[in-house]
Amino acid sequence: MSSEFQRLTVIDLARHYGRRKALSQVNFSCDAGEIIGLLGPNGAGKSTLLNILATLLSPSRGRVEYGERTASEGGAEIRGRIGMLGHDLFLYPELTARENLVFFAQLYGLPDARMAAGAALTRAGLADRGDDLVSGFSRGMRQRVALERALLHEPRLVLLDEPFTGLDQASTAALVARLRERQAAGCLLVIATHDLEVADGLLSRAIYLKNGRIVGTDSDSRGLSERYRLAIQ
Amino acid sequence: MIGSFFRVAWYVMRKDLTVEVRSKEVLLTTLFFAVSVVLVFSFAIVREGRAPDDVAAGILWVAVSFAGTLAMGRTFERERYNDTLRALLLAPSDRPAIYVGKLLGLLALLALVEIVLVPLIGLLFNAPILAFPGRLAALLALGTLGFAAVGTLFAAMLVRVRSRDTLLPVLLYPITIPVMIAGVRGTAALFQDTPDLPMAQFWIGLLIVWDVIFITLALWTFEPVMTE
User: Fold this and answer.
1) Least packed by Cβ within 10 Å: which of A19, A107, A128, B142?
2) Contact B30, B71 (CB under 8 A)
3) Could you tell me the CA-to-CA distances from B153 to A54, A75, B78, B147, B157 in Å, in that order?
4) How wide is the angle at C-alpha A126 spanned by C-alphas A120 and A127, nearest 5°?
């Protein structure tokens, strides 16, 4: 069976931490070429949902289907088709940008890790800074390396947690362009963000989360701020 | 499949050692701490160049276990700073391979600490460290492996827990008591005035059993523990 799934389906998903319900009755789907936005205040359950989609957390109830298969059925093969950019960037500051990328390329079993890392550095616009330690990079530069790290293995499902935080206008525009390029390539993208200004016009669909529940969905992402206010209040 | 497992473990270990070579943070703090423990005990216990029987073995293992606990906490702390543990767990490899890589990195650091500790114990406590070097090395290697195998699993489990620094020794020491007893008694059997080789051999055998049990349990539980 091919691992190039066309659809991500979330069915009756719930996650409890003891008696606290982080997520309840979450249902939605995402098709190839769609960018789904998870919008909501702090503590709404966006990161928990992303972690479950990334197979890093097991749901307390319900399931996530990647095409026809769940994470436990697909195992490492499904994980190999997921790329995630976390809020904390997932980079080792003591390593150079190239060493970080080579390390993750090797973990993903890419045939020529050094070449893949070199190409990723070029895409990040950091080919000349590849041998500098990541600890010396600005937030925007780290974010660019982190995004390319997440996309190194050309994942089918791209999960991004607050990807626009701390970026200047140029870096934000470059990130948006890269996301649109992955969208055009048929990837499924799920973005958790507070940055409604950037998300406006970028998303194929917005899902509003509050207290772990979906309180609204929206397929017109223009004028997002106003509808976000209406949905969340 | 097995080749891929050990390849990933090797990448993780090499990455940990590269980070350590750059920062020297864990090695220096661990080494300084372990040497301090041995020196303090030697000032307190050694009189006129002689230490009470069996003390050297106990102090060696106290220093190894304290230093090991410190190193375990720090190596996983690094994975927490930028949430890199999540990136490791996302990789399409067998997740226990990450555990094995972290364990190998920790063992390499502790081996360096022991290379300094053992001669120091020999010097300060007049312990016959060169009488049976093969058996002493086997006891140290197997004891450290058992201790680090449990500690690496617990350190990974506790990486996102706020009170991890308190909980790690609280969980680790009771469970690794059999390893510590085997290490201390086996080493004492080698260090005593009339070495008891069959006894040392018995404890080496017991350490092998404990290591197999601990590593099997750790490999089995690592993935569910990290994703629940």
Assistant:
1) A19
2) yes
3) 22, 21, 15, 10, 6
4) 75
Q: What ipTM goes with this model?
A: 0.88
Average pLDDT over residues B188-205: 94
> Inter-chain contact A109–B15, Cβ cutoff 8 Å?
no
Cα–Cα distance, B165 to B221 (Å, whole number): 21
Interface of A with B in 31-90 (CB under 8 A): 51, 54-58, 76-77, 79-80, 82, 84, 86-90
A154 in reach of chain B (CB within 8 A): no
Residue A1 pLDDT: 44
The two three-digit tokens of residue B146, written as one number = 């058992």
Nearest to B228 among A58, A93, A106 (CB): A58
Interface of B with A (CB under 8 A): 4, 7-8, 11-12, 15, 18-19, 22-23, 78, 81-84, 86-94, 227-228
Query: Which residue in chain A has the smallest CA separation from B25?
Result: A94
Q: Which amino acid is at A188?
A: L
Taking phi over 0 as left and psi of -120 to 50 as alpha, with beta for the rest, A67 belongs to left
Q: Report CB contact under 8 Å: A79, B91.
A: yes
pTM of the predicted structure, to 2 decimals: 0.89
Determine the Cα–Cα distance for residues A59 and B70; give it in Å rounded to an integer.
33
CA dihedral in degrees (B212, B215, B218, B222; nearest 10)?
-130
pLDDT digits (tens, 9 = 90+) for A190-202: 999 988 888 888 8
Residues from chain A that touch B15, judged by Cβ atoms under 8 A, are 92, 95, 103
> What's the pLDDT tens digit per position in B199-214?
999 999 999 999 999 9
> What is the per-residue pLDDT across A25-57, written as a single tens digit (0 to 9) for each?
999 999 999 999 999 988 889 999 999 999 989
Shortest CA gap B154–chain A (Å): 18
Contact check, Cβ <8 Å, A92/B19? yes
